[in-house]
Amino acid sequence: MFNYKNNILTYSQLKENFSTINDIPFFLSEADYNFLSFRVSLYIKNEEIKLKNIQSSSLELKSSRKRIELYKASKLKVLNRLKGTLKNFFIELNQERLPQSDFNPYLELFFKDWLWDQEDNLSYIDQIPTDSKNILFLGCGAARMAYEYAKKNPSIDVYATDINPINLTLLFNQNKTKLFDVVKHPKELDKTSNKFEFSSPDKLENFYPFVSDFYTMDLQKFDHIVSNWFLDILPNDINTNLSHALSFLNDGGQFTYIGLANFYNKSLEESFTQDEIIETFQNYFADTKYSTQNFNYLNTEYVSQKRQEQLLIINAKELKSQKAKRFQSSQIKLRFNQDVANKKMEFQTYGNFLKHIDSDLSLEACASILEKEFGFSNNEAINYAKLMISKINS
Ligand SMILES: C[S@@+](CC[C@H](N)C(=O)[O-])C[C@H]1O[C@@H](n2cnc3c(N)ncnc32)[C@H](O)[C@@H]1O
Protein backbone atom coordinates (compact mmCIF):
# COMPACT_ATOMS: atom_id res chain seq x y z
CA MET A 1 0.00 0.00 0.00
CA PHE A 2 2.92 2.35 0.62
CA ASN A 3 4.46 3.68 -2.53
CA TYR A 4 8.12 4.30 -1.80
CA LYS A 5 9.65 5.46 -5.05
CA ASN A 6 7.50 2.86 -6.84
CA ASN A 7 8.62 -0.09 -4.74
CA ILE A 8 5.31 -0.89 -3.15
CA LEU A 9 5.84 -1.72 0.52
CA THR A 10 3.73 -3.75 2.90
CA TYR A 11 3.12 -2.43 6.39
CA SER A 12 5.87 -4.59 7.89
CA GLN A 13 8.31 -3.46 5.17
CA LEU A 14 7.35 0.11 5.96
CA LYS A 15 8.38 -0.47 9.56
CA GLU A 16 11.73 -1.90 8.43
CA ASN A 17 12.48 0.98 6.06
CA PHE A 18 11.25 3.99 8.01
CA SER A 19 11.70 5.32 11.56
CA THR A 20 9.26 3.93 14.09
CA ILE A 21 8.38 4.96 17.62
CA ASN A 22 6.44 2.54 19.81
CA ASP A 23 5.77 0.44 16.74
CA ILE A 24 4.24 3.32 14.75
CA PRO A 25 6.04 3.93 11.44
CA PHE A 26 6.63 7.47 10.19
CA PHE A 27 5.94 7.40 6.44
CA LEU A 28 7.61 10.72 5.69
CA SER A 29 10.47 11.86 3.48
CA GLU A 30 13.60 12.82 5.39
CA ALA A 31 12.85 16.51 4.86
CA ASP A 32 9.23 16.16 6.04
CA TYR A 33 10.35 14.08 9.03
CA ASN A 34 12.87 16.75 10.04
CA PHE A 35 10.35 19.55 9.57
CA LEU A 36 7.73 17.75 11.67
CA SER A 37 10.29 17.04 14.37
CA PHE A 38 11.15 20.76 14.41
CA ARG A 39 7.48 21.82 14.59
CA VAL A 40 6.67 19.42 17.43
CA SER A 41 9.83 20.36 19.37
CA LEU A 42 9.06 24.04 18.86
CA TYR A 43 5.54 23.49 20.17
CA ILE A 44 6.87 21.77 23.32
CA LYS A 45 9.51 24.44 23.91
CA ASN A 46 6.98 27.25 23.51
CA GLU A 47 4.61 25.54 25.93
CA GLU A 48 7.42 25.32 28.49
CA ILE A 49 8.18 29.02 28.05
CA LYS A 50 4.50 29.91 28.38
CA LEU A 51 4.23 27.91 31.63
CA LYS A 52 7.35 29.58 33.02
CA ASN A 53 5.82 33.00 32.33
CA ILE A 54 2.64 32.35 34.30
CA GLN A 55 2.98 34.47 37.42
CA SER A 56 0.84 32.53 39.88
CA SER A 57 2.59 34.04 42.92
CA SER A 58 1.18 37.50 42.10
CA LEU A 59 -2.43 36.26 42.25
CA GLU A 60 -4.61 37.43 45.11
CA LEU A 61 -6.93 34.48 45.56
CA LYS A 62 -5.49 31.43 47.27
CA SER A 63 -7.70 29.17 45.20
CA SER A 64 -6.55 30.76 41.93
CA ARG A 65 -2.94 30.25 42.95
CA LYS A 66 -3.73 26.63 43.73
CA ARG A 67 -5.51 26.06 40.40
CA ILE A 68 -2.75 27.65 38.39
CA GLU A 69 0.03 25.83 40.23
CA LEU A 70 -1.85 22.59 39.63
CA TYR A 71 -2.22 23.49 35.95
CA LYS A 72 1.47 24.32 35.57
CA ALA A 73 2.76 21.27 37.42
CA SER A 74 0.52 18.85 35.52
CA LYS A 75 1.20 20.48 32.14
CA LEU A 76 4.93 20.12 32.78
CA LYS A 77 4.44 16.43 33.53
CA VAL A 78 2.51 16.07 30.27
CA LEU A 79 5.27 17.80 28.30
CA ASN A 80 7.90 15.58 29.90
CA ARG A 81 5.84 12.51 29.04
CA LEU A 82 5.65 13.67 25.41
CA LYS A 83 9.40 14.26 25.25
CA GLY A 84 10.02 10.82 26.74
CA THR A 85 7.61 9.11 24.33
CA LEU A 86 8.96 10.89 21.27
CA LYS A 87 12.53 9.99 22.22
CA ASN A 88 15.01 10.87 19.45
CA PHE A 89 12.33 12.53 17.35
CA PHE A 90 12.22 15.39 19.85
CA ILE A 91 15.04 17.95 19.64
CA GLU A 92 15.91 20.24 22.53
CA LEU A 93 15.82 23.82 21.16
CA ASN A 94 17.93 26.20 23.19
CA GLN A 95 17.44 29.53 21.47
CA GLU A 96 15.98 32.30 23.60
CA ARG A 97 13.65 33.75 21.00
CA LEU A 98 11.62 31.28 19.03
CA PRO A 99 8.73 31.73 16.62
CA GLN A 100 5.35 30.30 17.58
CA SER A 101 4.72 26.78 16.35
CA ASP A 102 1.73 26.12 14.11
CA PHE A 103 1.57 22.56 15.43
CA ASN A 104 -1.69 21.56 17.10
CA PRO A 105 -1.09 18.59 19.43
CA TYR A 106 -4.80 17.72 19.76
CA LEU A 107 -3.96 16.18 23.15
CA GLU A 108 -7.62 16.00 24.11
CA LEU A 109 -8.18 13.42 21.39
CA PHE A 110 -6.21 10.77 23.23
CA PHE A 111 -8.38 11.16 26.32
CA LYS A 112 -11.52 11.32 24.21
CA ASP A 113 -10.62 8.16 22.35
CA TRP A 114 -9.10 5.95 24.99
CA LEU A 115 -9.99 7.25 28.44
CA TRP A 116 -13.39 8.91 28.39
CA ASP A 117 -16.76 7.26 27.96
CA GLN A 118 -17.22 6.23 24.30
CA GLU A 119 -20.97 6.74 23.98
CA ASP A 120 -20.73 9.86 21.82
CA ASN A 121 -17.41 9.05 20.25
CA LEU A 122 -18.46 5.73 18.76
CA SER A 123 -22.10 6.65 18.18
CA TYR A 124 -21.74 6.71 14.39
CA ILE A 125 -19.35 3.81 13.74
CA ASP A 126 -22.18 1.60 12.45
CA GLN A 127 -22.90 4.13 9.73
CA ILE A 128 -19.56 3.48 8.08
CA PRO A 129 -20.16 0.84 5.37
CA THR A 130 -18.32 -2.47 5.76
CA ASP A 131 -18.30 -3.82 2.22
CA SER A 132 -14.74 -3.10 1.06
CA LYS A 133 -11.45 -4.99 1.32
CA ASN A 134 -9.42 -2.10 2.61
CA ILE A 135 -10.09 1.27 4.13
CA LEU A 136 -8.07 4.38 4.97
CA PHE A 137 -8.96 6.64 7.91
CA LEU A 138 -7.57 10.10 7.19
CA GLY A 139 -6.57 12.36 10.09
CA CYS A 140 -7.36 9.49 12.45
CA GLY A 141 -6.20 11.37 15.58
CA ALA A 142 -5.75 8.87 18.39
CA ALA A 143 -7.29 6.22 16.08
CA ARG A 144 -9.99 4.74 18.30
CA MET A 145 -12.60 4.79 15.55
CA ALA A 146 -10.26 3.03 13.12
CA TYR A 147 -9.22 0.54 15.79
CA GLU A 148 -12.82 -0.36 16.70
CA TYR A 149 -13.73 -0.60 13.03
CA ALA A 150 -10.82 -3.02 12.49
CA LYS A 151 -11.88 -5.06 15.51
CA LYS A 152 -15.47 -5.35 14.28
CA ASN A 153 -14.40 -6.18 10.70
CA PRO A 154 -11.43 -8.57 10.85
CA SER A 155 -11.60 -9.26 7.09
CA ILE A 156 -11.03 -5.59 6.16
CA ASP A 157 -7.49 -4.13 6.16
CA VAL A 158 -7.75 -0.92 8.14
CA TYR A 159 -5.14 1.81 7.58
CA ALA A 160 -5.15 4.87 9.80
CA THR A 161 -2.96 7.90 9.41
CA ASP A 162 -2.34 11.27 11.00
CA ILE A 163 0.39 13.91 10.83
CA ASN A 164 0.36 14.15 14.62
CA PRO A 165 2.86 11.68 16.12
CA ILE A 166 1.85 12.47 19.70
CA ASN A 167 -1.45 10.63 19.87
CA LEU A 168 -0.36 7.70 17.71
CA THR A 169 2.92 6.96 19.47
CA LEU A 170 1.13 6.83 22.83
CA LEU A 171 -1.03 3.98 21.59
CA PHE A 172 1.21 0.93 21.91
CA ASN A 173 3.78 -0.31 24.45
CA GLN A 174 1.96 1.34 27.33
CA ASN A 175 1.35 -0.40 30.62
CA LYS A 176 -0.51 1.62 33.24
CA THR A 177 1.02 4.82 31.88
CA LYS A 178 -0.04 7.85 33.92
CA LEU A 179 -1.56 10.62 31.82
CA PHE A 180 -2.95 13.97 32.95
CA ASP A 181 -5.81 15.64 31.17
CA VAL A 182 -5.18 19.27 32.11
CA VAL A 183 -8.01 21.69 31.42
CA LYS A 184 -8.13 25.44 31.25
CA HIS A 185 -11.78 25.83 32.23
CA PRO A 186 -12.55 23.10 34.77
CA LYS A 187 -15.92 22.74 36.45
CA GLU A 188 -14.22 22.68 39.85
CA LEU A 189 -10.77 23.58 41.04
CA ASP A 190 -9.59 20.03 41.59
CA LYS A 191 -10.74 19.05 38.08
CA THR A 192 -7.97 21.19 36.63
CA SER A 193 -5.82 18.12 36.34
CA ASN A 194 -7.41 14.72 35.80
CA LYS A 195 -5.21 11.70 36.21
CA PHE A 196 -5.72 8.54 34.15
CA GLU A 197 -3.88 5.28 33.73
CA PHE A 198 -3.61 3.92 30.24
CA SER A 199 -2.66 0.45 29.05
CA SER A 200 -2.43 -0.28 25.33
CA PRO A 201 -5.24 -2.14 23.59
CA ASP A 202 -4.48 -5.55 22.06
CA LYS A 203 -2.72 -5.44 18.71
CA LEU A 204 -4.95 -6.38 15.76
CA GLU A 205 -3.71 -8.21 12.65
CA ASN A 206 -5.71 -5.95 10.31
CA PHE A 207 -4.99 -2.56 11.91
CA TYR A 208 -2.19 -0.47 10.38
CA PRO A 209 -1.64 2.95 11.96
CA PHE A 210 1.10 5.24 10.62
CA VAL A 211 2.23 8.87 10.75
CA SER A 212 2.14 10.75 7.46
CA ASP A 213 1.16 14.05 5.93
CA PHE A 214 -2.08 14.04 3.97
CA TYR A 215 -0.66 16.51 1.47
CA THR A 216 2.59 14.70 0.68
CA MET A 217 1.93 11.01 1.44
CA ASP A 218 2.51 8.61 -1.41
CA LEU A 219 0.01 5.79 -1.12
CA GLN A 220 -1.65 3.30 -3.43
CA LYS A 221 -5.37 3.58 -3.98
CA PHE A 222 -7.95 2.35 -1.47
CA ASP A 223 -11.46 0.89 -1.81
CA HIS A 224 -12.86 3.09 0.90
CA ILE A 225 -11.70 6.34 2.53
CA VAL A 226 -13.05 7.86 5.73
CA SER A 227 -12.59 11.48 6.70
CA ASN A 228 -13.57 11.63 10.34
CA TRP A 229 -13.62 15.23 11.66
CA PHE A 230 -10.82 16.03 9.26
CA LEU A 231 -11.76 17.84 6.03
CA ASP A 232 -12.96 20.95 7.82
CA ILE A 233 -9.79 21.59 9.85
CA LEU A 234 -7.35 21.56 6.93
CA PRO A 235 -5.84 24.59 5.29
CA ASN A 236 -6.95 25.01 1.65
CA ASP A 237 -10.52 24.96 0.47
CA ILE A 238 -12.81 21.93 0.60
CA ASN A 239 -12.60 21.35 -3.16
CA THR A 240 -8.81 21.17 -3.16
CA ASN A 241 -8.84 18.87 -0.12
CA LEU A 242 -11.57 16.56 -1.32
CA SER A 243 -10.17 16.29 -4.80
CA HIS A 244 -6.76 15.43 -3.30
CA ALA A 245 -8.27 12.84 -0.94
CA LEU A 246 -10.05 11.26 -3.87
CA SER A 247 -6.77 10.77 -5.71
CA PHE A 248 -6.24 7.91 -3.17
CA LEU A 249 -9.57 6.28 -4.04
CA ASN A 250 -10.03 3.40 -6.49
CA ASP A 251 -12.48 3.80 -9.34
CA GLY A 252 -15.60 2.22 -7.89
CA GLY A 253 -14.47 3.10 -4.39
CA GLN A 254 -16.50 4.89 -1.74
CA PHE A 255 -15.93 7.83 0.58
CA THR A 256 -17.36 8.47 4.04
CA TYR A 257 -17.42 12.01 5.39
CA ILE A 258 -18.04 12.41 9.10
CA GLY A 259 -17.86 15.86 10.63
CA LEU A 260 -19.54 19.16 11.16
CA ALA A 261 -22.68 19.95 9.22
CA ASN A 262 -21.35 23.50 9.03
CA PHE A 263 -17.84 24.64 8.23
CA TYR A 264 -17.21 27.71 10.35
CA ASN A 265 -14.64 29.92 8.76
CA LYS A 266 -13.73 33.53 9.20
CA SER A 267 -14.15 34.20 5.53
CA LEU A 268 -17.66 34.10 4.16
CA GLU A 269 -16.57 32.34 0.97
CA GLU A 270 -14.99 29.45 2.87
CA SER A 271 -17.85 28.88 5.32
CA PHE A 272 -20.28 26.15 4.28
CA THR A 273 -23.73 25.01 5.30
CA GLN A 274 -24.85 21.40 5.12
CA ASP A 275 -26.39 21.95 1.65
CA GLU A 276 -23.13 23.28 0.31
CA ILE A 277 -21.10 20.38 1.74
CA ILE A 278 -23.51 17.88 0.21
CA GLU A 279 -23.45 19.68 -3.13
CA THR A 280 -19.65 19.53 -3.08
CA PHE A 281 -19.80 15.74 -2.71
CA GLN A 282 -22.45 15.47 -5.43
CA ASN A 283 -20.04 17.22 -7.69
CA TYR A 284 -17.56 14.36 -7.28
CA PHE A 285 -19.89 11.36 -6.83
CA ALA A 286 -22.96 10.15 -8.71
CA ASP A 287 -24.41 8.49 -5.59
CA THR A 288 -24.42 10.54 -2.36
CA LYS A 289 -26.41 9.59 0.74
CA TYR A 290 -26.37 11.43 4.04
CA SER A 291 -27.79 11.56 7.53
CA THR A 292 -27.42 13.91 10.50
CA GLN A 293 -27.42 13.50 14.25
CA ASN A 294 -26.84 15.63 17.33
CA PHE A 295 -23.44 15.13 18.80
CA ASN A 296 -21.83 16.13 22.10
CA TYR A 297 -18.45 17.41 21.07
CA LEU A 298 -15.51 16.54 23.38
CA ASN A 299 -17.91 15.77 26.18
CA THR A 300 -16.37 15.32 29.65
CA GLU A 301 -17.54 15.48 33.21
CA TYR A 302 -15.03 18.07 34.21
CA VAL A 303 -15.10 20.86 31.61
CA SER A 304 -17.49 23.69 32.37
CA GLN A 305 -18.75 24.40 28.85
CA LYS A 306 -20.62 21.87 26.77
CA ARG A 307 -20.74 21.97 23.01
CA GLN A 308 -23.46 20.28 21.02
CA GLU A 309 -22.92 20.03 17.28
CA GLN A 310 -24.94 18.89 14.33
CA LEU A 311 -23.02 15.95 12.88
CA LEU A 312 -23.21 15.17 9.18
CA ILE A 313 -22.43 11.71 7.80
CA ILE A 314 -22.14 11.34 4.03
CA ASN A 315 -21.59 8.05 2.23
CA ALA A 316 -20.64 8.70 -1.38
CA LYS A 317 -20.12 6.23 -4.24
CA GLU A 318 -19.57 6.22 -8.01
CA LEU A 319 -16.67 8.57 -8.20
CA LYS A 320 -16.33 10.84 -11.21
CA SER A 321 -12.65 9.96 -11.15
CA GLN A 322 -11.43 12.55 -13.66
CA LYS A 323 -12.14 15.15 -10.95
CA ALA A 324 -9.70 13.68 -8.42
CA LYS A 325 -6.46 15.65 -8.50
CA ARG A 326 -3.41 15.34 -6.28
CA PHE A 327 -2.46 18.48 -4.41
CA GLN A 328 0.95 19.81 -5.44
CA SER A 329 2.99 21.46 -2.74
CA SER A 330 3.91 24.13 -5.28
CA GLN A 331 0.26 25.20 -4.86
CA ILE A 332 1.06 26.39 -1.33
CA LYS A 333 1.22 30.12 -1.41
CA LEU A 334 0.52 33.11 0.74
CA ARG A 335 -2.52 34.79 -0.67
CA PHE A 336 -2.29 38.52 -0.18
CA ASN A 337 -5.72 39.95 0.41
CA GLN A 338 -7.48 42.50 2.58
CA ASP A 339 -7.32 40.20 5.64
CA VAL A 340 -3.56 39.79 5.29
CA ALA A 341 -3.09 43.51 4.76
CA ASN A 342 -5.04 44.24 7.97
CA LYS A 343 -3.14 41.58 9.93
CA LYS A 344 0.15 43.01 8.71
CA MET A 345 -0.74 46.48 9.95
CA GLU A 346 -1.99 45.10 13.27
CA PHE A 347 1.15 42.98 13.89
CA GLN A 348 3.48 45.82 12.94
CA THR A 349 1.69 48.20 15.28
CA TYR A 350 1.72 45.73 18.20
CA GLY A 351 5.34 44.78 17.45
CA ASN A 352 6.53 48.39 17.52
CA PHE A 353 4.68 48.97 20.77
CA LEU A 354 5.58 45.71 22.52
CA LYS A 355 9.30 45.95 21.81
CA HIS A 356 9.43 48.60 24.57
CA ILE A 357 7.61 46.46 27.12
CA ASP A 358 9.23 43.94 29.45
CA SER A 359 7.21 44.43 32.63
CA ASP A 360 3.94 46.00 33.91
CA LEU A 361 3.48 49.59 32.67
CA SER A 362 1.04 52.33 33.67
CA LEU A 363 -1.41 53.82 31.18
CA GLU A 364 0.63 57.05 31.08
CA ALA A 365 3.88 55.18 30.37
CA CYS A 366 2.17 53.26 27.56
CA ALA A 367 0.83 56.53 26.14
CA SER A 368 4.26 58.09 26.16
CA ILE A 369 5.64 55.11 24.19
CA LEU A 370 2.89 55.64 21.64
CA GLU A 371 3.71 59.34 21.44
CA LYS A 372 7.34 58.58 20.66
CA GLU A 373 6.82 55.53 18.44
CA PHE A 374 3.88 56.78 16.37
CA GLY A 375 4.03 60.55 16.71
CA PHE A 376 0.59 60.86 18.39
CA SER A 377 -0.37 63.95 20.34
CA ASN A 378 -0.65 63.48 24.10
CA ASN A 379 -4.47 63.29 23.95
CA GLU A 380 -4.55 60.83 21.09
CA ALA A 381 -1.87 58.70 22.73
CA ILE A 382 -3.95 58.21 25.90
CA ASN A 383 -6.94 56.97 23.86
CA TYR A 384 -4.81 54.66 21.74
CA ALA A 385 -3.01 53.36 24.84
CA LYS A 386 -6.37 52.44 26.42
CA LEU A 387 -7.40 50.60 23.25
CA MET A 388 -4.06 48.87 22.89
CA ILE A 389 -3.94 47.75 26.52
CA SER A 390 -7.44 46.35 26.45
CA LYS A 391 -6.78 44.53 23.16
CA ILE A 392 -3.48 43.06 24.28
CA ASN A 393 -4.84 42.06 27.70
CA SER A 394 -7.91 40.43 26.18
C1 LIG B 1 -10.24 17.46 14.54
S1 LIG B 1 -8.99 16.25 14.57
C2 LIG B 1 -9.92 14.78 14.34
C3 LIG B 1 -9.17 13.53 14.67
C4 LIG B 1 -9.96 12.23 14.64
N1 LIG B 1 -10.43 11.91 13.31
C5 LIG B 1 -11.10 12.27 15.62
O1 LIG B 1 -12.26 12.33 15.19
O2 LIG B 1 -10.83 12.25 16.81
C6 LIG B 1 -8.14 16.49 13.04
C7 LIG B 1 -6.92 15.62 12.85
O3 LIG B 1 -6.35 15.89 11.57
C8 LIG B 1 -4.94 15.80 11.70
N2 LIG B 1 -4.27 16.51 10.59
C9 LIG B 1 -4.20 17.84 10.39
N3 LIG B 1 -3.48 18.11 9.28
C10 LIG B 1 -3.08 16.91 8.77
C11 LIG B 1 -2.32 16.53 7.64
N4 LIG B 1 -1.79 17.44 6.82
N5 LIG B 1 -2.11 15.22 7.43
C12 LIG B 1 -2.63 14.28 8.26
N6 LIG B 1 -3.36 14.59 9.35
C13 LIG B 1 -3.59 15.88 9.61
C14 LIG B 1 -4.67 16.40 13.07
O4 LIG B 1 -3.39 16.05 13.55
C15 LIG B 1 -5.82 15.86 13.89
O5 LIG B 1 -5.49 14.67 14.52
* CATH top level label of the largest domain: Alpha Beta
Bound molecules: S-adenosylmethionine
Number of helices: 11
The total tally of domains equals 2
By oligomeric state, this entry counts as single chain
Structural class: alpha/beta
Radius of gyration: 24 Å
Global outline: globular
Give me the count of strands: 13
* Overall mean confidence score, pLDDT: 91
Following the backbone from N to C, one meets helices and strands in this order, namely EEHEEHHHEHEHEEEEHEHEEHHH
CATH superfamily of the largest domain: Vaccinia Virus protein VP39
Segments where pLDDT lies below 50 for 5+ residues?
none
CATH topology-level name of the largest domain: Rossmann fold
What separation lies between the terminal Cα atoms?
Answer: 49 Å
**Beta-strand percentage range:** 15-25%
CATH architecture annotation name of the largest domain: 3-Layer(aba) Sandwich
Percent in helix: 25-40%
- What does the largest sheet look like? 7 strands, mixed
Sequence of strands across the biggest β-sheet: 9-6-5-10-11-13-12
Secondary structure blueprint with pairings:
Blueprint: E1 2-4, E2 7-9, H1 11-17, E3 20-21, E4 24-25, H2 30-52, H3 62-86, H4 108-114, E5 134-138, H5 144-152, E6 157-162, H6 165-169, E7 177-182, E8 193-198, E9 207-211, E10 222-228, H7 238-246, E11 249-260, H8 274-284, E12 285-297, E13 307-319, H9 338-354, H10 363-374, H11 378-393
Parallel strand pairs: 5-6, 5-10, 6-9, 10-11
Antiparallel strand pairs: 1-2, 3-4, 7-8, 11-13, 12-13
S-adenosylmethionine is lined by residues 106, 109, 139-141, 162-164, 213-215, 228-230, 233-234.
